[in-house]
UniProtKB/TrEMBL annotation:
Designated gene of the protein: dapB
Record-given protein name: 4-hydroxy-tetrahydrodipicolinate reductase
Family matches, as InterPro entries: DapB_C, DapB_N, DapB_N_CS, DHDPR_bac, NAD(P)-bd_dom_sf
Annotated metabolic or biological route of this protein: Amino-acid biosynthesis; L-lysine biosynthesis via DAP pathway; (S)-tetrahydrodipicolinate from L-aspartate: step 4/4
Occurrences of domain Dihydrodipicolinate reductase N-terminal (ranges): 1-122
Catalytic activity: (S)-2,3,4,5-tetrahydrodipicolinate + NADP(+) + H2O = (2S,4S)-4-hydroxy-2,3,4,5-tetrahydrodipicolinate + NADPH + H(+); (S)-2,3,4,5-tetrahydrodipicolinate + NAD(+) + H2O = (2S,4S)-4-hydroxy-2,3,4,5-tetrahydrodipicolinate + NADH + H(+)
Length: 264
């Protein structure tokens, strides 16, 4: 299967190129970076000391040569690539976070024409953690829930897409919409905590790959469900599973719970 990688010079782009080059059933067909990127014109494997013959381009028309794009960039980049994927009937795995409602609607619309996997976290561990959260939320309806996340200093969106998803899973298990119960930040004289709210807190610093903890705080006890990433390899491997999943499915919008068979 011919795979394209967007954001080829980014942290995830490089992790993905490495993973695709090592996968016997996949070939790297296209590598995209944005206009003005210093990577343009270089071999996509140069950072590994490898010659792949795939030159990094900023032309989304190159997506005609790929069966599936893996896109971990920024919302505006992903949406531009998505339009080219629809034009060329190329499936897409979207790992980018930070979309607004209009961006999410554009993704859903594209998924009527092509296969799309869209998930804020591709790791098997995080997706298993989401199932644990669903169980805990159902078993502990009166416990106070707080979502904590920590990431590297270069991350541009907050809370992380994964933290938002964790909050949504808990809210949904309690029959609520996250927007109605979220406390995004606290400062000053906040008053006592209101029952049923879901609080968020965020750390940014250094090279933290990605930590998430959800606290279920009751009276006399608390449960902390934590996932920590120590490398980006799991995000890349999950993305490759998503590429293979799309090859066996008709157009539609899927998430990693479906790819991993955790949606039952
Ligand atoms: N779903 C998941 O499992 C995971 C999701 N992510 C998400 O993936 C995204 C990327 O993360 P990361 O790799 O760390 O970020 P980086 O900043 O390291 O890489 C982003 C890449 O996208 C490029 N880019 C930026 N803007 C555009 C644009 N408008 N059009 C095209 N390309 C663009 C950047 O180019 P340039 O450097 O020139 O700006 C860079 O090559 C984030 O949204 C992050 O939250 C990250 C890890 C796991
Ligand atoms: O930007 C990152 O690095 C990450 N982003 C994703 C998110 O926003 O949840 C996934 C992971 O936590 C790493």
């Amino acid at each position: 299967m011919r795979v394209a990688v967007a954001g080829a010079s980014g942290r995830m782009g490089r992790e993905l190129i490495d993973a695709v080059l090592q996968a016997p059933d996949l070939s790297l067909a296209v590598a995209l970076d944005r206009a003005g990127s210093p990577g343009l014109g270089q071999d996509a494997g140069a950072f590994l000391g490898q010659h792949t013959g795939v030159v990094i381009t900023d032309d989304p028309a190159a997506l005609a040569d790929a069966d599936c794009l893996i896109d971990f960039t920024r919302p505006e980049g992903t949406l531009a690539h998505l339009a080219a994927c629809v034009e060329h009937a190329t499936n897409v795995v979207i790992g980018t976070t930070g979309f607004d409602d209009a961006g999410k609607a554009a993704i859903a619309q594209a998924a009527q024409r092509i296969g799309v996997v869209f998930a804020p976290n591709m790791s098997v561990g995080v997706n298993t953690t989401l199932k644990l959260l669903e169980l805990a939320a159902r078993m502990l309806p009166d416990y106070d829930v707080e979502v904590f996340e920590a990431h590297h200093r270069k991350k541009v969106d907050a809370p992380s897409g994964t933290a938002l998803k964790m909050g949504e899973v808990v809210a949904q298990a309690r029959g609520k919409s996250l927007d109605d119960v979220a406390d995004w930040a606290r400062h000053g004289h906040t008053g006592e905590r209101e029952p049923g709210r879901i609080g968020f807190s965020v750390v940014r610093g250094g090279d933290i790959v990605g930590d998430h903890t959800v606290f279920f705080c009751g009276t006399g006890e608390r449960i902390e469900i934590t996932h920590r990433s120590s490398s980006r390899a799991n995000y890349a491997q999950g993305s490759l599973r998503a590429v293979r999943y799309l090859a066996g499915h008709a157009p539609g919008l899927f998430d990693m719970q479906q790819v991993l068979g955790l949606d039952g």
